[in-house]
Amino acid sequence: xxxxxxxxxxxxxxxxxxVGIVTSCNPAPEGSDPRVEKLLRKMTLEEKVxxxxxxTSDWTVTGPSMRQGYIDDIRSGRCGNIFNAYTxxxxxxxxxxxxxxxxxxxxxxxxxxxxxxxxxxFPINLGMACTWDMDAITRSAQIAAREASAAxxxxxxxxxxxxxxxxxxxxxxxxAGEDPYLGSAIAAAMTKGYQGSDLSADNxxxxxxxxxxxxxxxxxxxxxNTVDMSERWLREFYLxxxxxxxxxxxxxxxxxxxxxxxxxxTANAHLLQDILRDEWxxxxxxxxxxxxxxxxxxxxxxxxxxxxGRLAMNAGIDMxxxxxxxxxxxxxxxxxxxxxxxxxxEAVRRILNVKAALGLFDDPYRYCSPEREASQTLTxxxxxxxxxxxxxxMVLLKNDGVLPLRKGARTAVIGALAASKDDLLGxxxxxxxxxxxxxxxxxxxxxxTPAVYAEGCKETGDDRSGFGAALAAARSADQIVLVIGxxxxxxxxxxxxxxxxxxxxxxxxxxxxxxxxxxxAVVLLxxxxxxxxxxxxxxxALLEAWYPGTMGGYAVADVLFGDVNPSGKLCVTFPRxxxxxxxxxxxxxxxxxxxxxxxxxxxxxxxxxNEPLYAFGHGLSYTTFSYSDITLSAASFGAGDTLQAxxxxxxxxxxxxxxxxxxxxxxxxGSVTRPVRQLKGFERVTLAPGESKQLTFDxxxxxxxxxxxxxxxxPEAGGFKVFIGGSSDNVKEAExxxx
Length: 739
Ligand code: BGC
Hints:
This protein is α/β, with parallel strands linked by helices. It is built from 23 helices and 29 strands.
């Protein structure tokens, strides 16, 4: 019997109309599977430890190699889980060794980083979050699960739930941006997409919630660096998306590399036991990140690897990814009493119960299917979905009328990134291959209009020798598309930067092209908020296209030429410069908010406005929308009540368009200070020219709840503001009270 329940996504999500209901299927039965209990009674200590060991294959290696010879380790029963190995044939080969050649025949679990697609690659996650479209995000995860499971995989290291306000950090590209409410909705949508309602189905994947916790807050944006913050801020800002994924039924969690309050997450019993298991009721297993256990020696938290392994197991880490500490020392540590056998048993029980929930004890080969692998991978339907989601992920930051471009007009396409298939895929592209990308941006534009391509310059370096040819191409054309940004390897893991400028001489090329006076649209490929102040001033139009995936070339052309009306909204704030960082919409008011233009002793910069260049929630369309004032169903409400806030949105332009309507609240006085804007609801609405629609958002006690001064979660009586609009910096407002 599966344990299924219906719940509202995450404690912090309350506006039901906006996010909808997620069905949480905790596929592991409430108790332990009898087959697991029977196995536990038979297992030797070595066999038990084997189930806690996860080694990489030698196919793709995503970190340091600690041990060679994983096939021998599978055969000896000392390694029960493998990652970075896929294809139906290869996983079957390894599974046969585990099933036929080990004493107990326990099937292997195969994991992989299926982050934004497996073979069909979707936009990077930061881009996907800009769709604000939970159905589309769920569908992308379903497609990824279908493709990956046919290749023998059971487990994806996704969703990445790390809230981030630090653009220097390369991994901001892998997450859903800066907002806990949007991030929670996305974490739940992805989990639902991967796991479906039946984890044992042959086309679903086990989700892994990562990187728990607060990995997105490294000091100075340097990857793997120290994280420190108050417990309140951790709970309010960083934890909600991890919890939302757990609430949606995710049965594995990955501990993060970073320390928190002086304790590495890999041995942090407060995170792993108190919060994850005791408060949230998580019943799956916890895995380390890659060599997370050994790294506790460098952290200065463990004397040696052996000690680190003991600390991790005793804190609640069930599975050791790649450090070999459990492999090398855990048997002895149980024998010596440093680790209780019951602690090891509990870890093994959790892992085996997930294997049971995946159906591996019923048929260990159900996921390896050469037929499905051939027929369900990179299908026309998957690619069509990827193209449409890619177009939806793009954010039109600026448009003075250059876009949409004219079809039939001579177009100069410029920039190394315009001719790159590789960069379209972004980092962590699963098993996505460049050969599967049908068109670069330049190719796709050529299919729409007469076009000439010139590289101009590379993304990095100071070679200006291509400027002349690029300018000549621009002068001979009617309109210019310049594609600039970051090499995709400059984003993702271990890709922190101290500057968020457009690298190399790309901005210089832009200035020269702008000086031709020709209509100029800039397309950006990048994985973090960049300093676009100069770019925005020079370009007639600015389209943020992120790394849009396998079908990204066509998707960019779809938007540029108006076949798709852009609807993306930023899930992260774009600063004017690095000096403003961290800058995000969820900020507090301070005791000296900047309100008087000439004031000195107010919270402001002397050399730069406080406002960002592009605010959270910003994104233009080829049409325009107007908002009525907000109507409230009552001036106040109380416990057990729901207040409704309504607006009427009208398409005031000439084209059908989709608007994401956002609702924010502010608690005016609290027992602890509250942010000036907190996202609490959103809804996408598609309107024909002249069409209007009334949207209603629910506000209930949960909507206004927070971690109060005494660290209890709940609402406080008093005055509130509600804001509704098309961007966090462009809203209508009204006041209400809670009694
Ligand atoms: C990353 C994880 C990833 C793991 C396995 C680590 O380096 O931090 O996000 O899942 O490698 O590839």
